[in-house]
Amino acid sequence: MNTRSEELAPAVRSILEAASERSGGDERVSVDARSLSEAFAAAEADGRVPVIAEVKPTSPTTDGARDDDPVALAASMVEGGAAALSVLTEPEHFDGSVENLTRVREAVDVPVLRKDFIVREDQLDAAEADLVLLIARFVGDDLADLVEAARDRGFQPLVEVHTREELAAALAAGAELIGVNNRDLGRLEVDLSTFESVAPEVPDRVTVIAESGITTPADARRMREAGADGLLIGSAIMDSEGEDASGTGGDVSANTRRFTAAESEEEV
Predict the structure, then answer these.
(1) Residue of 128, 160, 176, 196 with catalytic role
(2) 126, 240, 249, 252 - which has most CB atoms within 10 Å?
(3) Domain boundaries of the chain, sorted by first residue
(4) Is 76 considered catalytic here?
(5) Is 212 a catalytic residue?
C-alpha cells in the first residue's frame, strides 16, 4: 500500500511534499512517556469523556488563526478536563513548531501527542513527546518499521487510518493505538459515519480514537456510542469566532469542558 499523491487533495499533497523535504533530529531521542491509556482511564474514573485537545494555531481546512501562547492554551485545555494534548509541529501549513511542543510538554502533566506528518525514521528524533502520529496513508509500506522505531525510542505510536484497508495494515504493523480520521484526505470532506464503519473492526485490545469533525457534544456522544475510547478535538476547541448556543465562544477551557462533560448531567 503506497501513497499515491495524485489521489490527495492539493492542500494535503503540498503538506506531504513539504514533509518529505523536512530534516529530522541530529540525535536519536529516548523518551520516558506518560501513558495515554492511564490518562484515559483516569478521565473515565472521574466521569469525563477522554479528550485529546489539540493546540492548533491554524490549518488548511479552517479560516483564521489563533496567536495565543501555546502554553496558556494547553493549560486552559487541561483546566477544562482534557486527558491529553496534541500539539502541531508542522510549520509551513499549521504554524506549528517543535519548540511549542517542548514548552507545552514541560508545562503540563498529561500525555502530549506530537502531531506532524512523519514520513522517515529520522524525523522521529526532532522532538520528545509522549505519543507520535503516524498516518498510514502517508507512510505506506514503511508503517511497521516506523511503529517499531517509535517504540524503540519510548514513544507511543498513534496510527491514523481512514479505511478498513488502512486499519488492517495498522493492525498488521502492531498498532495498539488507532485513530480513525473522519476526514477523507483525498477530498477533505468529513463524514462521522467513517468512524462508525471502521471502528467495529478494531479489536477490543486496541485503543481507538475518533478524529476530525467532532464539533458538538452530540457529535462526541455519537462517536462514543460507536465505540470511541477517546476523541481528538481541535478546531471546535480552538475556535475563537463569536459564541455558539452554549455561550462559550473562544473560551478554550469552557470549549474543552463542553466535550469532556458531554456524557454528564452537568454538561456545559
Answers:
(1) 160
(2) 252
(3) 43-260
(4) no
(5) yes
For the chain, what is the largest distance between any 2 Cα atoms, rounded to a whole number of angstroms?
Answer: 50
Which among 100, 115, 176, 182 is annotated as catalytic?
115
pLDDT of residue 14: 83
CA distance 201 to 169: 12
Is 211 a known active-site residue?
yes
CA distances to 130, 179, 251 from 105, in Å: 9, 21, 21
Confirm if 85 and 113 have CB atoms less than 8 A apart. yes
Residue 265 is predicted with a pLDDT of 55
- Per-residue pLDDT, 191: 97
54 is annotated as an active-site residue: yes
Residue with cell 484515559: 40
Residues of the chain with confidence (pLDDT) below 50? 1-2, 63-64, 241-249, 266, 268
Give the contacts of 170 (CB within 8 A, at least 6 positions apart): 136, 143, 159, 161, 178
Range 43-260: architecture per CATH: Alpha-Beta Barrel (3.20)
Give pLDDT, residue 241: 45
- At 247 the pLDDT is 41
If you ran DSSP here, which 8-state letter would residue 157 be given? E
CB-CB contact of 163 with 201 (8 Å): no
- pLDDT at residue 9, rounded to an integer: 80
Q: What tens digit of pLDDT does each residue of 213-239 get?
A: 999 999 999 999 999 999 999 999 987
Q: Please, are residues 93 and 18 in contact by the beta-carbon 8 Å criterion?
A: yes
Cell reading at 90: 508542522
Pairing of strands 183-184, 189-190: antiparallel
Q: Is 17 a catalytic residue?
A: no
pLDDT attached to residue 264:
85
